[in-house]
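Render this sequence as a predicted structure.
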Amino acid sequence: MNKKDLLIGFVIGIFTALLGSYLFVTFFTRFDISTGIQTIKQQGYMGKVITIGTVLDLAVFWLLLNRNEEMKARGIILAVIVLAISTLFI
């Protein structure tokens, strides 16, 4: 069950980062989501927006630790590491 919890945490981490990126584009830019993503890609800021989106993972990580779900919290950390490495190539 440990690998399943790790995978669940990883998926939660990826979706949370995507949600954080969506919220950033929605609330802190003057564009709608599709125009905002196109503009961010053109200007070369996609990696930075994804990195900002991962800040939301911190809250989920803290919540999982408080609920004693350490393997899911490790999945969150794994997702953050994968996203950090992927932003180097974006």
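Summary. The helical segments are 2-28, 33-43, 46-53, 55-66, 70-89. The two ends are 34 Å apart (CA to CA).
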